[in-house]
Design goal:
The strands form 7 sheets. The protein has a 7-stranded mixed β-sheet, with no helix packed on it. It has 574 residues and is an alpha+beta fold. The chain has 4 domains: 3-72, 2-Layer Sandwich (Phenylalanyl-tRNA Synthetase, Chain B, domain 1), CATH 3.30.56.10; 84-275, Phenylalanyl-trna Synthetase, Chain B, domain 3 (Phenylalanyl-tRNA Synthetase, Chain B, domain 3); 281-349, 2-Layer Sandwich (Phenylalanyl-tRNA Synthetase, Chain B, domain 1); 366-573, Bira Bifunctional Protein, Domain 2 (BirA Bifunctional Protein, domain 2, 2-Layer Sandwich). The longest helix is centred in the N-terminal third of the chain and has 18 residues, at 116-133.
Length: 574
């Protein structure tokens, strides 16, 4: 969870009122943060805020916390409104960036008065959004520049690796390749673009470099100081919706400092957009649903008042609340998300607890205890546990794994065991990346390895997680099965190493098993086998095919296995 430092004086300047340290402990809860530490430095009191929500990057700065507190205390209510003036600035995006880092969105914020605390928060917000929300700059990278040093129009283009500029913190020009080797940020984030034929570069009309996304800004325009009055904001990534949200977070935070937001026209090869887009988002919720799950006897007007204190514009109609909420939020996906805001505004500490009257005594689920025992066993082999998302997409599950399931799902029956591995897909996914429930775990481990190719080897991973499969015999048509997956990556890894771990797992769980050679497109021919227990195929083991590794961008050999855990759940664990 993101942690960041804020000045008590700066927070109170933004809120418009002073509070005691003890009062701030409660006020941070409105912003879904906890007060982790308090200290004094140069006569000022500082707080370390520990955010408890990775879906609310708008709350990861002094500006976001202060805004939330102002509304929660009733100093303001309803939907925050930010004016966006039109500018004549255009950014042109190069078609060659399509497979390198395809999207960029931009804005101008003028009339800023930046002191040391404001500058510290600006840098903090950039880092936290790019690190956590942006997955270490892979999906979101942010640059903020002194706009008075920029000469529009601006070009986001693919550059030759031999081009030069002075990176932030340096005095001499370096080629783009040299930056990846010599600059601290180049060494840290260079793996994101190192294997690309070109490197991204943001330049103005006079050829002056603004930045090399997602690595480093230039020393000329990328150093913002307390003398800076007008800034240009640049955000790049792979998902246009995600970087648009990040842009909204950054520019509205700067607007809380008195800045005036101006739009930028962004021209792509086949479309164009104007950014930022601060159009409010809408949602609708049943008022009785709020009352029932909150367990509170709230009137319609009381619910409306609580929601207005959480920055919603509320219209009550036919037992429902029709809501508008700020464009810097993207976490309202279910009525429970609105319920949470109602409870935050009401105050969790104000809710009187009631002890439930139960005629039974609770206990741990035995199969869950069995899963935990398997996890402890795998850790004992020196493997690192990872927890990846159940949501995935067809490309990751099929195409990158060399499987023909997309066009011929019946051919996948032999690759997984019954039920067949037809994907359960989401009808209206928020993102194409999260458009289906996974039917096996090994692609998730390969995805993890692909994002950590810059880390030291060997990398020895395992996951105990859920796979969702089609089961026509059930009314719900799907079944969620617990599985164990292992992936071993290092230069000398072999089928034998994976099998040794499998042998030990089976021995500890008290099972004998057989291996039957199988031709599986995800694995090297002759180095893959079915795992069979009591005549039932429960999994697969093998050395991952080089074509699969290439699709994932993994240059290291990988071996592993995956199996269902339910058939191995026996009497000792009941």
């Amino acid at each position: 969870m993101p942690k960041f430092d804020v000045s008590k004086r700066d927070l109170e300047r933004l809120v418009g009122r002073e509070f005691t340290v003890e009062e701030w402990e409660d006020l941070f809860l409105y912003a879904k943060c906890e007060l982790d530490d308090v200290w004094e430095e140069n006569g000022q009191i500082y707080f370390k805020a520990d955010s408890k929500d990775t879906n609310r990057p708008d709350l990861w700065s002094a500006e976001g916390i202060a805004r939330q507190v102002r509304w929660a205390l009733g100093f303001r209510k309803g939907l925050p409104k930010y004016e966006v003036e039109k500018s004549d600035v255009t950014v042109y995006v190069d078609e060659k960036l399509k497979d390198i880092r395809p999207y960029g969105v931009y804005a101008i914020v003028e009339g800023l008065s930046i002191d040391e605390e404001a500058l510290r928060q600006m840098i903090n917000l950039q880092e936290k959004v790019a690190l956590t929300f942006g997955r270490r700059r892979r999906e979101v990278a942010i640059g903020i520049f002194d706009f008075d040093k920029v000469k529009p129009p601006i070009y986001y283009r693919a550059a030759e690796k031999t081009e030069k500029f002075v990176p932030l913190g340096f005095e001499e020009e370096l080629t783009l390749e040299e930056i990846l080797e010599k600059h601290e940020k180049g060494r840290e984030y260079g793996h994101l673009i190192r294997d690309k034929p070109y490197y991204p570069l943001l330049v103005d009309s006079e050829g002056n470099v603004l930045s090399m996304p997602p690595i480093i800004n230039s020393e000329t325009t990328g150093r913002v100081t307390t003398e800076t009055k007008n800034v240009f904001v640049d955000i790049t990534g792979w998902d246009l919706n995600k970087i648009m949200l990040a842009l909204n977070v950054v520019v509205t935070a700067l607007a809380e400092r008195g800045g005036r937001i101006k739009s930028v026209r962004v021209v792509y090869p086949d479309f164009e957009v104007v950014t930022p887009d601060l159009t409010p988002k809408s949602f609708e919720v049943e008022l009785d649903y709020i009352r029932k799950l909150a367990g509170l006897d709230l009137s319609d007007e009381e619910i409306k008042e609580l929601l207005e204190r959480m920055m919603y514009e509320v219209t009550l109609e036919d037992g429902k609340a029709k809501l508008l909420y700020p464009a810097f939020r993207d976490d309202i996906m279910h009525a429970r998300d609105v319920l949470e805001d109602v409870l935050i505004a009401y105050g969790y500490n104000e809710i009187e607890p009631e002890e439930p009257e139960l005629a039974v005594r609770g206990r741990g689920d035995k199969f869950v205890e069995f899963e935990d025992a398997v996890r402890e066993l795998m850790v004992g082999y020196g493997l690192q546990e990872v927890m990846t998302f159940n949501l995935t997409n067809r490309e990751a599950q099929y195409e990158k794994m060399n499987l023909p399931c997309g066009e011929h799902p019946e051919e996948c029956r032999d690759y997984f065991s019954n039920p067949p591995a037809e994907l359960v897909e989401i009808e209206n996914p928020i993102s194409p990346k999260w458009s289906a429930l996974r039917s096996w775990l090994l692609p998730s481990l390969l995805d993890f390895l692909s994002q950590n190719t810059h880390e030291e080897y060997p990398q020895r991973l395992f996951e105990v997680g859920k796979a969702t499969l089609i089961d026509e015999s059930r009314e719900a048509k799907t079944i969620s099965e617990s599985k164990l997956a292992v992936a071993l990556a290092h230069p000398r890894v072999t089928f034998t190493e994976a099998k040794e771990i499998l042998d030990s797992v089976m021995r500890h769980l008290g099972f004998e098993y057989e291996l039957e050679e199988v031709e599986h497109p995800s694995f090297i021919p002759g180095r893959a086998g079915r795992i069979v227990v009591n005549g039932e195929t429960i999994g697969v083991i093998g050395e991952v095919h080089p074509g699969v590794l290439e699709k994932w961008g993994i240059e290291m050999p990988v071996a592993g296995f995956e199996l269902f855990l339910r058939p191995l759940y026996t009497e000792p664990y009941l």
